[in-house]
Amino acid sequence: MSLRSALRAQTADCHAAVDALFGSFNLSRTQDYKAFLRAHARVVPSIEHALEEAGIARLLPDWPERGRAQLISADIRELGDQLPDLLPPPALRGEAAIWGAAYVLEGSKLGGAMLARSVPDHLPCRYLTPQGPKAAMRTFMESLDASDPKDPEAAVLAARSIFDLFLEAGQLELEAVA
Known about the structure:
The protein is mainly alpha-helical. Helix content is about 65%, strand content about 0%. Helix 1 runs parallel beside helix 10, helix 2 runs parallel beside helix 10 (about 150-175) and helix 3 (about 30-40) packs antiparallel against helix 7. The longest helix has 26 residues, at about 150-175.
């Protein structure tokens, strides 16, 4: 089983939970959209930093073009909102953990593109519609498929921990707007 297949199969429950939670935000309402962005801003910058510290650039040379921390920050500021406190990312030790964490972040871009359709045109949407490198998802998936980490379970554990961070951040923001 490829690493991509293992990640997809063994994190499907986490992915469904994150989709359900973030699907409860009404992105056509400015307050919900702000809360949605704040939830993501609690985790994306710290995960990106953890990936950089762990050496993602040696696995994905175009990594610097993939980051979205500045995009989410710009959207939040344009909405006149404050950046939230970051949740601490898990330690990413080894190539497998890097792939697992990157799998979640890169995959969130696909979901973001679909969610962007719900955001009114007058609201900033850089985070959900990043430009990034051309064919970035295909390149990522090809690199993931070509990887052969020694411990695929570490990739799954890292991916699950990233999904858990998104769930925690989403809950915090939903509670704040409730």
